[in-house]
Design a protein that fits this description.
Layout (H helix, E strand, L loop, with lengths): L1 H7 L1 H20 L29 H5 L8 H13 L1 H22 L4 E15 L3 E4 L3 E4 L2 E18 L4 H67 L5 H15 L1 H19 L8 H4 L20 H4 L1 H21 L5 E12 L5 H4 L1 E11 L7 H67 L6 H34 L12
Antiparallel strand pairs: 1-4, 2-3, 4-5, 5-6
Helix pairs in contact: 4-6, 5-6, 6-7, 6-8, 6-11, 6-14, 11-13, 13-14
């Protein structure tokens, strides 16, 4: 059968060579309709407004900014999150889907070939003649026939992309792949930043809990001193009541802090793709907050366009939207298709070579939608509007990125100043507590100044710890705003 098919297609091959040459000329001379995409130039400031702690760009340092805190626990959590976070797995699958969609779009550029084969057996039974038999009996004889029909061949078609509609569709699909890749990188930035902020918040809460317990212990000692003085007749019941109220108020802060600590650990578990309590044993132990680096490798605002994945993704979506204008515009023009088929059929499988019939056809076809009520032009206008929307979104993403960086800068810088002032306040309040306590014990003052001094010290200490925690989280926000937390290897390239 294969040899017969080979002989049958000899003429088709000769015609195909001629048509292939003609197609090559057409494709070389053809052009894709619609606008060609050019990355738009975007104006950005030449420098940051408040670059007091900025240093030249360091892509490697930004890619693993968490290492600048010098905390191995934080580094380990981020590394685990990069491999197990469920948002990352979702983004990875979306990238895989966009690549598959590109493969589907690219397939339309090639001919399609369908192989088919069949075998049928049909039969018929026709009325026959009546034959007289001995003994005045008769029988009717019928005539029957059986016929076999076997067929094998192929059908081929190729739509010539003369006006570039399919090529524009492939271009849009390729841009969508790039956008999905940037979305994955953006998730990397977000996951690293969220883990960092939650971890630093956790250490701040644990330090607050530690300070609260230390203040409670000091206030309980003051309460005992007041009771002894009351028993000796040197203090009033009001002093005892005030000391007890102060200690009870501080003691009431502990359960709330413990709840926040647990909730933060639960949040870290989710970021690592684990159950809420999976990290309790690992993270409930109190550890001090890590220090912050003195310099941030911020670089220049113009570098933000290439470093922020959301900006790169918005630019890729603008590219895809522009390409879809051409894909829609190609529907205004005729479609040219080459169709061909070849087959052999025979009615006798035994003597195939003698009873075979050879059939083939080849030729071009053209279709042109001359009128559809303006639907094609409306679709073109819709895609132009979508491209304009994508450009506005691209520009907004750039401005939002600049705003996020500047806001993180000023928050980080001013909070650093605030922490220094709060540190001075803590030292002053500590001296006030010591002095007020000594004067009270010596009988030179009542207990009210002690209560006020202890309350002020506790408030200043809590404010200082909160400020130090905010310095760290503001710094993480700055790293996120700068697009830190990803490199090409982690994004699957």
């Amino acid at each position: 059968m294969i040899s017969i098919l080979t002989r049958s297609f000899t003429r088709v091959r000769r015609a195909r060579r001629t048509v292939s040459l003609l197609l090559a000329v057409l494709l070389l001379s053809g052009c894709a309709v619609g606008p060609d995409y050019i990355t738009p130039d975007q104006e950005v400031p030449s420098g940051w407004i408040d670059p007091s702690k900025a240093s030249p760009s360091d892509p490697a340092a930004l890619a693993s900014w968490w290492e600048s805190f010098g905390d191995p626990v934080l580094t380990g959590l981020v590394a685990r999150g990069m491999s197990s976070n469920l948002d990352l797995k979702i983004a990875t699958e979306r990238l895989r889907q966009s690549r598959a969609a590109l493969g589907q779009a690219s397939g339309a550029l090639w001919p399609s070939l369908d192989l088919n084969a069949s075998h049928q057996r049909s039969g018929s039974r026709l009325p026959g003649s009546t034959v007289e038999r001995a003994g005045d009996s008769s029988v009717t004889l019928s005539e029957s026939s059986t016929k076999d029909l076997s067929r094998a061949g192929f059908d081929a078609s190729w739509e010539i992309d003369l006006f570039g509609g399919t090529r524009r569709t492939v271009e849009a699909a390729r841009a969508n792949v790039r956008a999905s890749r940037e979305d994955l990188r953006d998730v990397l930035v977000t996951v690293a930043g969220d883990i960092g902020q939650n971890y630093l918040t956790l250490r701040g809460l644990q330090e607050q809990l530690k300070v609260t317990r230390e203040n409670l212990a000091a206030q309980e000692r003051s309460e005992q001193i007041t009771k002894k003085r009351y028993d000796a007749g040197f203090a009033s019941a009001l002093d005892v009541s005030g000391a007890q109220a102060q200690a009870a108020s501080t003691r009431a802060q502990i359960p709330a802090l413990q709840a926040q600590i647990r909730q933060t650990i639960y949040g870290l578990g989710l970021l690592l793709g684990q159950e809420p309590g999976a990290l309790l044993a690992e993270l409930e132990g109190e550890k001090p907050m890590p220090g912050v680096p003195a310099q941030v490798p911020a670089g220049l605002p113009s570098e933000l366009l290439q470093r922020r994945p959301d900006i790169r993704g918005a630019e890729a979506r603008l590219h895809a939207a522009t390409a879809r204008i051409g894909a829609a515009k190609a529907d205004l023009f005729p479609r040219f298709t080459l169709n061909g088929s070849a087959s052999i059929q025979a009615s006798d499988l035994v003597s195939w070579s003698e009873s075979v019939s050879r059939l083939w056809s080849f030729g071009p076809s053209v279709s042109w939608n001359l009128f559809n009520g303006g639907a094609t032009r409306a679709r073109i206008e819709e895609n132009r509007s979508l491209a304009d929307e994508a450009f506005a979104s691209y520009r907004k993403t750039i401005l939002s990125a600049l705003q996020e960086v500047e806001s993180a800068w000023v928050a980080f810088d001013r909070e650093t100043e605030r922490a220094a002032l709060l540190g001075t306040a803590v030292e002053s309040n500590r001296r006030s507590v010591d002095l007020a306590t000594r004067l009270y014990v010596e009988g030179q003052s009542d207990f009210l100044p002690v209560l006020d001094a202890q309350r002020s010290l506790y408030g200043a200490q809590q404010a200082l710890i909160t400020s130090r925690s905010q310095i760290s989280t503001h710094l993480v926000s700055l790293y996120k705003a700068l697009g830190g937390g990803w490199d090409a290897e982690k994004a699957g390239e």
